[in-house]
Amino acid sequence: MTLSPVTHMAEPHAVLTRPAAIADNDYEIVRRVIEHISERWRDQPSLETLAGDVGMEPTALQKLFTRWAGLSPKAFLQAVTIDHARRLLDADMPLLEASFELGLSGPGRLHDLFVTHEAMSPGEIKARGAGLTIRYGYHVCPFGIALIMVTERGLCGLAFCDAGGEGATFDDMAARWPFAAFAEDMAATAPYAARIFAPGTWRQDQPLRVVLIGTDFQVSVWEALLKIPMGRAEAYSSIADRIGRPKASRAVGAAVGANPVSFVVPCHRAVGKSGALTGYHWGLTRKRAILGWEAGQLNADQTAEAQRRQPA
C-alpha cells in the first residue's frame, strides 16, 4: 500500500493507490450486505438471499462475516436491529443477553479500548490549529479506510471513508483546524491503526493517548461518550443529563456529530431515545457495521471465557 506524496492541505491530497478494490479488506462486501439488511430488515432476509444480492455463495458469505465480525449474518442482523438497540439502553441487562443468549460470567475484563486523554487549552482552541503540526495517514481497517491524524501529544483525529473518498474526508477533518500544518506520515500513524482496530492489543496498563480538540462543551460530551462501554448504548438525552445540561439534548447531538476521533471516542454508541440509531457523520451503514463488529468481539470474549470455565 503506497500513498502519493502530499504534505499540505492546499496541495493535492494523499490517496490510496489501490482505490478500486483492496484485496485484504472485507468491508466492501459487508457494507453492501448491511445496506440490503437495512432496507429489508423487517423481512429477515435469509443467508441465501443476502449472498445472492452480493454475488456470493452462501457458505462463502457466512465465512466472510465470521472472519470479519465473529458473527454469522443472521446474528449480525439481530445485533443491528432497533429492538437490540433498545435493549442496549437498559443498563441492567447483561451484555448481548437477548441477541446471543449469553450472560456475563462475572465481572471479567473490560471489553474496550483503554484511553487516556487530555483537552487542549482554550488558547490553543482559539488558535484553530496555528502552530500545530498534524501528521496523517490512510489505513485499511474493518470499516473501510481510516484517516488517522496525530500530534506529538497523541491521536487527535480518526475518520472513515470508502475508496475514492479520501480527499473529501481529509477536507472535512482539516477544516476543523484550518491553520494547522498537515504532513502525510504513515510511519507516525501506523502504530495507532495497529492498536485501535486490534482488540487483542487493548490493555489497561497501556492506554491509547488521545488529545481532544474542541470547546469545553464538546469535550464534556466526548468525555461522556468515553464512559459508554462496548455493548451498551446511551440516548442523547441521557448524555445531556450526565453532563449536567438536561435541556441541551440537541446541542449534545451536534457535539456527538462533531466528534473528531470516531470509534475511539465511541459516538456510534449514542442513539435516539427510542433506540433508533439516528445519524452518523461517516454514514449510518458504517455505524451499523461498527456496532455489529463490537457485538462480535464481545461474543468471542464471552465464548472464550465460558470455555475457560469448563472443567478439564
What does the model show?
- It is a single chain.
- The protein is of the alpha/beta class and 312 residues long.
- The protein folds into two domains: 27-108 and 283-309, no CATH class; 115-271, Winged helix-like DNA-binding domain superfamily/Winged helix DNA-binding domain (Arc Repressor Mutant, subunit A), CATH 1.10.10.10.
- Helices cover 41% and strands 14% of the residues.
- Strands 4-3-2-5 form a four-stranded mixed β-sheet, sandwiched between helices.
- α1 (27-40) packs across α13 (284-309) and α2 (47-53) packs across α3 (58-69).
- The longest helix is centred in the last third of the chain and has 26 residues, at 284-309.
- The radius of gyration is 20 Å and the shape is globular.
- The termini are far apart.
